Amino acid sequence: FATAPAALANCPPFPSVISMLCMAVPKGISVE
């Protein structure tokens, strides 16, 4: 999963959304 967010972060239309997703994804995995 680390590759997908990284690739999107290279050219994201909405940096804010990507940033939130990047933080939400690791947190979700950590909780599980």
Please give the radius of gyration in angstroms. 10 Å
Quaternary assembly = single chain
Strand content is under 5%
Biggest sheet statistics: none
Terminal CA distance: 15 Å
Low-confidence stretches: none
Annotation field: number of helices: 2
> What is the overall silhouette?
flat
Report helical residue fraction: over 70%
Mean pLDDT: 60
The count of strands amounts to 0
The H/E string reads: HH
Instruction: Supply the helix-strand structural class.
Output: mainly alpha
Mind explaining what this structure looks like?
It contains 2 helices and no strands. It has helices at 3-10, 15-31. The protein is flat, with a radius of gyration of 10 Å. Helices cover 78% and strands 0% of the residues. With 32 residues, it is mainly alpha-helical. The mean pLDDT is 60.
Give a quick rundown of the structure:
By secondary structure, the protein is an all-alpha fold.
List the helices and strands and how they pair.
Layout: H1 3-10, H2 15-31
Key phrases:
flat, single chain, 32 residues, 2 helices, mainly alpha
